[in-house]
Amino acid sequence: MPGSRRSQRQRAVSELRAQGRYGPELRDVLPGFVGLGLAVLLPSLLLAWLYRALGVGGLVLGVVALAAAAAAGLRLHRSVARRRGGRYTAAELARLDDPGLAVAAARMLRRDGWRVVDLTAREGRPRLYARDRRGRELDVAFRPVATADEDEVAGGPAPLREAGRPGVDRLIRVVVHLGAFSRADVLWASRQGGVHLLDGHQLQRWAGGATLDDLGLPG
């Protein structure tokens, strides 16, 4: 009976969906098909209009413009993917604000295998907690980005390994800054125990692919 066959088919489809073996429905794939169709149709219409309006020269101009737009889109996609993967250029770092610097640091930590908890909302300022497979724990704070241009460079960069020693609680405290730390900063950090300074020079190395261990993080 038609009704029985319809009911059997509905039950079969329901079982397949429950098992995750039933393919997507039209409503699931329709937006993708529409987007793909527009991506093909709109450039074709543009080229046709340019050809009618300007002839072969217009067609060539349209092809060149579309190729340039596609190349720019590809570069943007790669740049976004690289940043999401925890890699930044010096120019990209320089454009970050305080929350952006914390996001970048969290991505770099995850890139290197750390498990990261963002404490910014609780602390009211950018702050991260991270733990790696070796059981090391980081408390990552940030010097305000606005002060990066106000620092006086005195004695060059302050390497992570020279700024302090692990504290009693074994929590490694790291202060990240886009600029340069002064001698007074280094002296203060060395007296705190477990406070380590990561300046702009080393931040660029970290963003380029170096790990905190490469920069001298205590093990």
Key terms:
219 residues; alpha/beta
How would you describe the overall organization of this protein?
The protein is 53% helix and 11% strand. With 219 residues, it is of the alpha/beta class. The protein has a five-stranded mixed sheet with strand order 1-2-3-4-5. Strand 4, helix 7 and strand 5 form a beta-alpha-beta unit. Helix 2 packs antiparallel against helix 3. The longest helix has 29 residues, at 26-54. The radius of gyration is 27 Å and the shape is flat. It starts with a helix and ends in an 11-residue tail after the last helix. Residues 152-159 and 161-168 have low confidence and may be disordered.
What is the helix tally? 8
- In helices, the fraction of residues equals 40-55%
Note the overall shape. Answer: flat
Largest sheet: 5 strands, mixed
- The assigned structural class equals alpha/beta
**Unreliable sequence segments:** 152-159, 161-168
Secondary-structure element pattern, one letter each = HHHHHEHEEEHEH
